[in-house]
What we know:
With 198 residues, the protein is of the alpha/beta class. The protein has 2 domains: 1-30; 32-188, Ribonuclease Inhibitor (Leucine-rich repeat, LRR (right-handed beta-alpha superhelix), Alpha-Beta Horseshoe), CATH 3.80.10. The chain is built from 2 helices and 12 strands. The strands form 3 sheets. It has a 6-stranded mixed β-sheet with strand order 2-3-5-7-9-11, with no helix packed on it. It has a 3-stranded mixed β-sheet with strand order 1-4-6. A 3-stranded parallel β-sheet has the order 8-10-12, with no helix packed on it. It starts with a helix and ends in a 10-residue tail after the last strand. Its main location: membrane.
Amino acid sequence: MNMERISRRFLMITMSVLVIISLLVHQTRGLNIEGQYLLDIKSKLVDKFNNLADWNSTDSTPCGWIAVTCNTLDYNDDPVVWSLDLNSMNLSGWLSPSIGGLVHLTSLDLSSNELSRNIPKKIGNCLSLEVLTLNNNRFEANIPKELGKLSCLRILNIYNNRLSGPIPEEIGNLASLSQLVAYSNNISGSLPAISWEP
Length: 198
């Protein structure tokens, strides 16, 4: 009888240890990589009205966060960030190059804020991007030629910023582009020839 008690006690202790280890492993998994990229983007923004307060590093994914829409690519896949809509949130600061880590992003709307500095070159890594709206901000410097790698891009709105220089020749590679609006900048030169899709 004594041996049976010891065995039960040992089994209970072993089970308790396994449950604790399982919980610790689950908690240390933490926020997925896309959520980490978004937190880096948030760290470069001034959010005076605390619109992004629910962007929390203790979540496992950013899919429940305000302004973030996720989708799954396949049945068994984890959800990926599909859309980021920070339109008219009174944000200032600048756009982090971490935006380039959101490789499944199809729509990015940062319009009507007060974002400044340059449009990061890493945005060219967002190869699924179809809609890019950066209008009504304070983006400056040249339009990055890396935008020419976004072969799925249909809409590019960059008007009412402080962009300068020519529109890069690489924009001509955007065969899917149906809308390019770039007025109220300091852009020089002419629009590159675009090879439109038939």
